Amino acid sequence: MPRFSIIVPSHGVAGRLSQALDSVLAQPFGDVELIPVCDAPGSPAADVAARYAARDSRVVPVHSPPSAGLAGARNTGMRAATGAYVLFLDGDDTLVPGALTALDARLADTGDVDVLYFEHERAPWWEGEPTNPAALLWPRTVPDGAFAPGQVPQLTGVRLPAWSAAHRRGFLLERELRFPGGHFTDVGFCGLVALHAERIAVLRRVVVRHLVRRQGSRSARPGEHHFELLDQTDLVLTRAAELGLPAERSGPLFAQLFAAVLKTAAHPGRLPARRRAFFRRASRLYRRHRPAGFRPPGGSVGVQHRLLAAGAYTAFRTLRSVNRAAAVARERLPRPKGLRTRLRYARALRRPLDPHLAVYCAYWGRGYACSPAAIHAKARQLAPHIRGVWLVEADQAHTMPADVEYAVIGSRRYWEVLARATYLVNNANFADAVVKRPGSVHVQTQHGTPLKKMGVDQVAYPVVAAATGSFARLLARVDRWDYNLTSNRHSTEMWERAFPGAHETLEYGYPRNDVYCTATADDVARVRRELGVPEGSTAVLYAPTHRDYRTGFETGLDLEAFCEAAGENVVVLLRAHYFYDRGGRPDAGRGGREGRVSRIIDVSSHRSSEDVCLAADALITDYSSIMFDYANLDRPIVVYADDWDVYRETRGVYFDLMESPPGAVARTPGELARVFADGSWAGPEAAAARAAFRERFCQFDDGRAAERVVRRVLLGEPPESIPPVLPLAERVPAPAASPLVRS
Q1: How many helices (DSSP H) and strands (DSSP E) are in the chain?
Q2: What's the Cα-to-Cα distance from 176 to each of 147, 189, 235, 257, 555, rounded to whole Å?
Q3: Maximum separation of any 2 CA atoms in the chain, in Å
Q4: Using an 8 Å Cβ cutoff, are 574 and 483 in contact?
Q5: DSSP secondary structure, 610-628, as one string
Q6: Rounded CA separation 695/693 (Å)
Q7: What are the angstrom distances between the C-alpha of 733 and each of 58, 621, 639, 641?
Q8: pLDDT value of residue 326
């Protein structure tokens, strides 16, 4: 007799069944019998199970028609089981590593119990943090060993799924316990099991990882199948009465069952029709099964109990409408996770705004960077009375300048400064939970000129839209903005399309680009030394953008081969997109071919993209917005467009870059090498294209953008007093290290 029989219904989950079976067979504890329950021979799941059975004798497939449902499949599996204990596993769930060893060890400690309850994880179908709801159900008073159900009356079983327990097979046979047909079968089965069990125990450890499907569980979908919850409730409470369950146990059982009933009755999405009929039947069951001396809970739930007992559907419906209206109001007020955090944040929100407090954040807390950093630095000069606090992730706190005050994202101080700051500056967005307070001023600086589709314009592109998430939440974040910065008229128009809202557009330029007009030759030389650029070499910055249709960073080029073809004095500064600056890049700068020193310098982790641009004599990019910023330096730009057609179709673009590039265009590695070998990368045609590009996209970046923002937002100066934009022809970009011809 095997120690465990594991029953795995597989209807509708053939694509994931192998993962469930593998999770069992890979367990170090091998004394198991694995019973996949398939629709019929020849079905997709049956074929998968047959392949496993052919190579492992512990796999014993059985068949159950889909018409029998989940209950029929599990009952078929139980009839075939021969193990001492029976476990149930849904076909798209898995056992965690070491689960069976832990179960066996626990049973050795407790002896033969009728039921061993254990914890489980609920894992979202997307990438997200799993939860452990079962851990919240164990009372603190649960004994360490085996115990009688009456010792822990709150442990009724009806709030746990069948796959969150191991059942002694002899106990199930003796009591003739089977899954009742229909929906909500776990409520009926688990309730009956708990009623008949004499010795139970608890394992405080996760055993099953349950996949929460995208379409949700059947129990949460709308339809008349919710009436079957009343059938299961009636079944369990009728059996409890037959067994003469004492009041100390019948009270918690009744309360937990009717908590589920009331949740359904109050949820119009689950019962789009016949809600009155559901309520009336539930009311009759309530009065029939209510234990003597039962006292309803307090608060709104207690009111629902009393209305259900009285059969007062009209009053119940009115209460439900009031509660729904309150819930909608609460949903409109985003809240941080965690009760304590919410309470602290709520208290801080009741305090007055600090008129001299500004918070800054860049790239979702990645450190001191981009336009928020430029505004912060300028505010120290022009508005020293404004205290600036940076928001940064904990793992990036060490990168913050020593003289810059900061708060770690998620900390208590983080929520306090967010609640009280008058000025909030970001180049991305603050968390959804952040409340836009009356009198506060939110400044969205953006972090580039848009070539690719952004915001709500992404909705037509499935790959990008899926990664973007909820567009409703995106627009809720946009609604917090008071000001949105642009660096050219193209950006003004595209941001208005992508992020529709009531905010004011400030055509002031991007503050991060100020340095391109204010840096000196000494600044350029210093940065090149810091990056390790050899003196006298031509530094070419290679900065490809992110591809939504790829999972990792790829250079797209053999950079060593490019250096050899481009010339002896060419070195490449490789800068990956900021999505990848914490890993996932190919090695660079660690030795070249045939033992020669590499001419590739990986600058992806350097905090300032502006510094990297200053150090570069030329730029190679594909479709990255860095080209618009780099154009302010009036240095050569080469577009390497090896997959333009794919990018344009999958990501969406606002204009055809091939028709109006900022310089030479190459589509293959050979073409790119020739562009540098013959000098056309810095030739007159490239210069003419760059000049036209600069006229269109460098309109407002004249070196005073940060000053304009500080004067207008932090100092409150009127628009007419803000320094005007210097014409493009009058600007003097920072000098390049190599004497190249400007436009």
Answers
A1: 26, 21
A2: 22, 11, 15, 23, 65
A3: 97
A4: no
A5: HHHHHH-SEEEESS-THHH
A6: 5
A7: 74, 20, 21, 27
A8: 52
What is the DSSP code (8-state) at residue 533?
P
pLDDT in tens, 328-387: 554 455 556 677 787 888 899 999 999 999 999 999 999 999 999 999 999 999 999 999
Low-confidence ranges of the chain (pLDDT < 50): 126-127, 214, 330-331, 579-596, 741-743
Other C-beta atoms closer than 10 Å to the C-beta of 568 total 9
Residue whose entry in the numeric block shows the structure tokens 């398939």: 38
526-539 tens-digit pLDDT: 999 999 999 989 99
| One-letter-per-residue 3-state SS of 276-307 | HHHHHHHHHHHHHHCCCCCCCCCHHHHHHHHH
How far is Cα 646 from Cα 586, in angstroms, rounded to an integer?
A: 23
Phi, psi dihedral angles at 731 (to 5 degrees): -85, 150
CA-to-CA separations, 705 to 424, 508, 518, 524, 732, in angstroms, rounded = 17, 5, 12, 21, 15
Residue 99 in tokens: 């689960």
**Residue pointed to by tokens 């306090």:** 416
| Sheet of 637-640, strands arranged across | 600-602, 570-574, 538-543, 618-621, 637-640, 664-666
Packing angle, helices 247-265 and 227-242, rounded to 10: 170
pTM for the full predicted model: 0.56
Helices (H), ranges, 512-621 = 515-518, 521-531, 559-566, 609-615
Beta carbons of 516 and 635 less than 8 angstroms apart: no
| Close Cβ partners of 303 (under 8 Å, ≥ 6 residues apart) | 319
